[in-house]
UniProtKB/TrEMBL annotation:
Protein name in UniProt: DOD-type homing endonuclease domain-containing protein
Upper taxonomic lineage: Archaea, Methanobacteriati, Methanobacteriota, Thermococci, Thermococcales
PROSITE patterns in UniProt: INTEIN_C_TER, INTEIN_ENDONUCLEASE, INTEIN_N_TER
NCBIfam families: intein_Cterm, intein_Nterm
Gene source species: Pyrococcus horikoshii (strain ATCC 700860 / DSM 12428 / JCM 9974 / NBRC 100139 / OT-3)
Comp. bias (Basic and acidic residues): 29-47
């Protein structure tokens, strides 16, 4: 750049004008705006936009004969500078008191909304909130002034001049409002100098616009300065800006950005202010504005529709605990209780976590509770973006720092938490816990695995097999005998990758999954220990340690409940639709044929030749044969016929103890023919021996080779069997399983008036058949009954009932027994569907529907219509009312699904994410792969009497549960997602926080807070749960719910559950429980007094709390003196 050019740039705008005597103002304006350039008019479009709904105020018409303030700019001719800048005395005399910007920008009465405006909700300053027909949310209408071309030119000139002439050092004037006031004053002077004929109102308007664009946030500046707004949301170009209004919730504004450049300019200005970088390489910005507001910005390609900005406003006058009580977020009783917990009476303050969704008011509650900290204590707060405002003197504020342009210099929350521990804090407040800092925090707070199953519990593997947990674990312990690790009296092994296996589990969405077992456990039964036997209505039964958790359904919530705490009537999760296992071929291990016969028969092109059986069969071998025996077909892959045969033999047949023959008894011709037909397929040209015995026929197959082959392939025991098992090979695919079950039911099943039943002496078989039927989508029950025959003992019945399941059985299981098949068809023809089996219904409670419906402002009639539409069936108003009043305990899954989908759609329409999540949970319950079986018996059993020596458990990755005897049990390492205090626990335990479970009891209290939207009250925030972490039982986190939200009362109420923390406080202070409740009442009185006196500002409330701590006796005397009611005076005297 030349020296001449540098001097020219250094000159001020006014110097340049004064040095150009021959230039007219018109020429100067043209020069500044670009000679010959024009702004093309935008073509009109027919598409509906915000402009079609929201009016743009038109400039007021000038009186006849009256020229525009800057009309002289349109005239030609060379007016001299001194004439232009001359200040007419006459006009000066007529000037009035300066007009405020709010008066200039008074909302106009727009004709555009004639016939559309339903209601004007509020008017203040230059803002009008209106309800418009056809709009889902209210309209936030900001009066946007229109400028003439002359005013736009003047605006640019003044802005350019201000850039050069106004220099304000931010350090010398740190106060943002003071800086703005000085800048506005200087800009106003410039406007008056350059356009002396301009009215005072227009001067004020132009000055304000210049300031907004230069040191404010452009079009967003009026929104940023509106203290009634909580959030400002820019979602792209040519789309309206949205705001969250403190009174009216989500609103649509009449502000639109027509170009990305406008949005980018604001984002870049914010980035410069906070010293951050945002570009395509770093398209995210998360920062704090000078006034404390949080801002998040995104750039393409992260945001697909253009740049976005979200500003969460910083309230200059923050809410206090008094405001929260007035807003009914909580009541004074709860606030006093929390005050005592925060105080800790100087010996044991509680560790408290506030949880909730976005916008639920967590920070406000945290800020309010922190005001209860005694003034003598040192407080250190750690925040990602500083939001807390505390009236505390000894307060150190720390804030994280992102990495610089080179990716260095980042200071994380975890870094600050670790550093804070070296700063001798009395209290640490962590603004938002999201990552590894959680573990550090719990480590600071903290300055075994016990639940198990007995060894005969059947575990369902993902490949379709069923195994006894004792057999499985013991086999692995033998293999890893040199790698056994111990913890107290527990033994466990970490499995290598090749030995890890998958089990059936259930995910947070209640859908069946397959997950890997990484560790197996065992321990000996302890001296004097009793186990718990749980029986359910559908016949499921499991024996566990007292502390082993199961999943139970309670008041619309899925909770973990220890076996010892279960009661008759509780509902526990039972697998209904397991994941479909892989359908594999049932390939026979050829080594079983070694020495099973004398020879193999192998084709040689002319016939068969004998090859001595010295081991594995030749590749082309087709038959097995011995001296004086019939050839038996060599089986390389089990088919349906052979599977059926195995079912018949295991059901009502046997292999002789010497292995020479097979025998089975038949009472039906078709059934017998099916059996004989299969024999003929595998032993060609052989006719079994059939002997009639009254009503029965006994078929004997005299083939030692065939009998031995079946014994080896299917594991059929020899002799008249007492114990047998379902062969693993028939579980290879569903077809084999169907034919095997058909053989069993043909042999040992019967059909009565309402059901089809299989009888067996083996509990193991009964449980596995239950599983197998479940795989086919058939729900059955297992019952244990005493044998009424000549032999003592128990027998087990597998029962299929209910029209739907009987029909599935008839379609899936190919019975050959003609009478049983005919009886089953008769039952299906005559039996009518009633309400459906309990497995196809879900438990329901008033808490599941009513609060959500009220939150969304729906009437019962509206919900009934919407739910009927989504369910595809009638969901009556009376049913909904019965549910909400607790008169109905179960409803059809389809009904709940319809209700859930209806509530989800409404929540989506009104933008209520919290409500949508709750409604989605209802849908998951309706569509889950588990059903909620009723507990009919809970009893203690003596493990010694049952011959139980060890108990076992598995560690399942991800879902942390598995199916045992059909019942879903936890491995004590995780929990099902729940939007409550329990969800907080799982979030703490899960990545990226990874807080070890053993540390979590250091947390004393979890406060849950949510945001509701109601038709009557609009958006409200409520505390819904105050839960106490009472400890670990079997490494399961135990919660005591001290307070719960009652929608009918719109209030959080005490549950009467005794508080563990108060007992601890009593121990540390030596005070009795009555004395502690006296302390709570004392604090409640202080809060009620402040409400009565109208004390609510943060400095005022803080001052009263400080006085309470410094001199409690004198403070209560002041309360008595200043009490405004007789009742308050009486209450105060009780504490003096």
């Amino acid at each position: 750049m030349s020296e001449k050019e540098e001097k020219k740039r250094a000159r001020s705008w006014i110097d340049e004008i004064l040095s150009s005597d021959n230039l007219t103002l018109e020429a100067i304006l043209k020069k500044s705006s670009g000679e010959g350039k024009s702004t093309p008019e935008k073509p009109k479009t027919e598409s509906l936009s915000r402009g079609n709904i929201l009016p743009t105020p038109s400039p007021q018409k000038q009186e006849a004969g009256e020229g525009l303030p800057l009309a002289f700019l349109e005239k030609t001719g060379a007016l001299r500078l001194e004439d232009i800048l001359k200040k007419p005395e006459e006009e000066r005399k007529e000037e009035e008191v300066p007009i405020r910007i709010q008066e200039i920008l008074t909302p106009p009465t727009s004709k555009k909304y004639t016939g559309q405006i339903l209601k004007v909700l509020d008017v203040y300053g230059n803002v009008r909130i209106i309800r418009v027909k056809g709009e889902a949310v209210p309209i936030y209408e900001l009066s946007i002034p229109e400028l003439s071309k002359d005013e736009e030119k003047l605006l640019k000139l003044v802005r350019d001049r201000a850039i050069v002439e106004i220099q304000i050092d931010p350090e010398s004037i740190p106060n943002l409002e003071e800086r703005r006031r000085i800048f506005l004053r200087e800009v106003r002077k410039m406007v008056k100098e350059m356009a002396p004929t301009l009215s005072e109102g227009r001067v004020e308007l132009l000055s304000e616009l210049i300031v907004q664009n230069m040191i404010g946030y452009g079009k967003l500046d009026p929104l940023v300065r509106d203290d009634n707004l909580e959030e400002i949301m820019v979602i792209g170009t040519n789309r309206p800006v949205y705001v969250w209004h403190r009174r009216f919730g989500m609103c649509k504004t009449n502000i639109t950005f027509t170009s990305e450049r406008e949005i980018l300019t604001i984002i870049e200005r914010i980035a410069r202010e906070v010293g951050r970088r945002i570009d395509q390489q770093n398209p995210l910005l998360d920062a704090r504005l000078p006034d404390g507001s949080r801002v998040n910005a995104t750039l393409p390609p992260i945001s697909l529709d253009g740049p976005t900005i979200t500003i969460r406003k910083f309230k200059k006058d923050p809410l206090t605990i008094i405001d929260l009580i007035k807003f009914r977020t909580l009541n004074s009783e709860v606030a006093a209780f929390l005050w005592l917990l925060v105080d800790g009476l100087g010996v044991k303050p509680a560790n408290i976590l506030v949880a909730g969704g976005t916008g639920s008011g967590k920070t406000t509650t945290l800020n309010s509770l922190a005001m209860f900290i005694p003034p003598s204590e040192r407080v250190i707060s750690i925040e990602d973006t500083a939001e807390l405002q505390l009236p505390i003197e000894h307060w150190v504020r720390l804030e994280t720092r992102p990495p610089n342009v080179e990716g260095k210099g980042e200071i994380t929350m975890d870094d600050l938490v670790k550093n804070t521990l070296r700063m001798r804090p009395d209290r640490i407040i962590v603004g938002e816990v999201r990552g590894p800092e959680a573990r550090t925090m719990f480590t600071a707070m903290n300055t075994g695995h016990d639940g198990a199953l007995y060894d005969f519990s059947i575990i369902q593997l993902s490949n379709g097999r069923f195994v006894l947990i004792g057999d499985l674990v013991e086999e692995l312990f033998k293999k890893y005998s040199d790698k056994i690790e111990r913890y107290k009296d527990l033994e466990y092994i970490e499995l290598n990758d090749e030995d890890r296996f998958e089990v059936v589990s259930v995910g947070p969405d209640l859908k069946a999954n397959k997950h890997i077992v990484s560790r197996v456990w065992r321990r000996r039964v302890r001296e004097g220990e009793k186990l718990i036997r749980i029986k359910t209505r559908t016949g499921n039964e499991v024996i566990l340690t007292r502390s082993h958790p199961l999943f139970a359904f309670s008041n619309g919530d899925v909770v973990r409940k220890e076996a010892g705490n279960l009661k008759v009537g509780d509902r526990v999760a039972v697998m209904m639709n397991p994941p479909k296992p892989p359908q594999t071929k049932a390939v026979v291990d050829l080594s079983i044929y070694a020495k099973i016969s004398d020879y193999y028969l192998v084709p040689n092109g002319k016939g068969m030749i004998k090859v001595p059986n010295k081991g594995l069969p030749p590749e082309k071998a087709q038959y097995l044969v011995s001296v004086n025996s019939h050839p038996v077909k060599l089986v390389r892959e089990v088919d349906e016929k052979l599977s059926y045969l195995a079912g018949v033999i295991l059901g009502d047949g046997y292999i002789s103890s010497n292995g020479y023959y097979i025998s089975a008894t038949f009472d039906d011709e078709d059934y017998m023919e099916a059996f004989v037909s299969v024999i003929s397929d595998f032993i060609p040209n052989y006719i079994p021996n059939v002997k009639e015995n009254g009503k029965y026929m006994v078929v004997t197959v005299g083939s030692k080779i065939f009998a031995e082959m079946l014994s080896r392939i299917f594991g059929i025991p020899k002799g008249r069997k007492l114990e047998w098992d379902v062969p693993d090979i028939v579980l290879s695919n569903d077809d084999l399983m169907r034919y095997f079950i058909a053989g069993l039911f043909d042999a040992d099943g019967y059909v009565d008036e309402n059901s089809i039943i299989l009888v067996t002496k083996s509990e193991n078989v009964a449980r596995k058949i239950w599983y197998a039927l479940q795989r086919l989508g058939i729900i059955s029950t297992v019952s244990r009954v005493k044998n009424k025959g000549f032999k003592e003992g128990e027998i087990f019945r597998v029962i299929i009932s209910g029209v739907d399941d009987l029909a599935k059985f008839a379609r899936s299981i190919p019975l050959h027994h003609s009478r049983k098949r005919a009886k089953l068809m008769e039952v299906l023809k005559t039996k009518k569907t009633h309400r459906g089996r309990r497995a196809y219904r879900v438990p329901i409670s008033a808490e599941m529907i009513a609060p959500l419906r009220q939150m969304l402002g729906l009437t019962v009639s509206e919900l009934s219509k919407l739910a009927s539409h989504y369910a595809g069936e009638k969901v009556s108003e009376s049913l909904i009312r019965h549910v909400e009043k607790g008169r109905v305990k179960e409803i059809r899954r389809s009904t709940l699904r319809g209700i859930a989908l209806a509530l989800q759609q409404v929540a989506k329409d009104v933008g209520d994410e919290e409500a949508w999540v709750k409604a989605r949970r209802l849908q998951l319950i309706a569509e889950g792969d588990v059903y909620w079986d009723e507990v009919v018996s809970v009893e203690e059993v003596d493990p010694k009497e049952l011959g139980i020596e060890y108990v076992y458990d598995l560690t399942v990755e991800d879902d942390h549960n598995y199916v045992a005897n059909g019942i879903l049990v936890s491995n004590c390492m995780g929990t099902i997602h729940s939007n409550s205090a329990r969800e907080t626990i799982i979030r703490l335990e899960s990545p990226p926080m990874n807080v070890p479970r053993i540390m979590i009891p250091a947390l004393d209290i979890i406060i849950m807070q949510v945001r509701y939207h109601t038709r009557k009250k609009g958006t409200i925030r409520r505390m819904t749960e105050i839960a106490e972490v009472s400890g670990i039982e079997g490494e399961s986190i135990q919660l005591n719910f001290l307070y719960k939200y009652d929608p009918a009362k719109d209030e959080i109420v005490r549950t009467e559950v005794p508080s563990r923390f108060l007992n601890i406080l009593s121990y540390h202070t030596g005070m009795g429980m009555d004395e502690l409740y006296y302390e709570i009442e004392k604090r409640k009185l202080v809060l009620d007094w402040m409400i009565e006196k109208g004390i609510r500002r943060i400095d005022e409330v803080g001052a009263q709390i400080r006085e309470f701590y410094i001199d409690e006796e004198e403070f209560f005397k002041k309360l008595e003196r200043e009490a405004t009611t007789i009742e308050m005076s009486k209450r105060v005297k009780e504490f003096i």
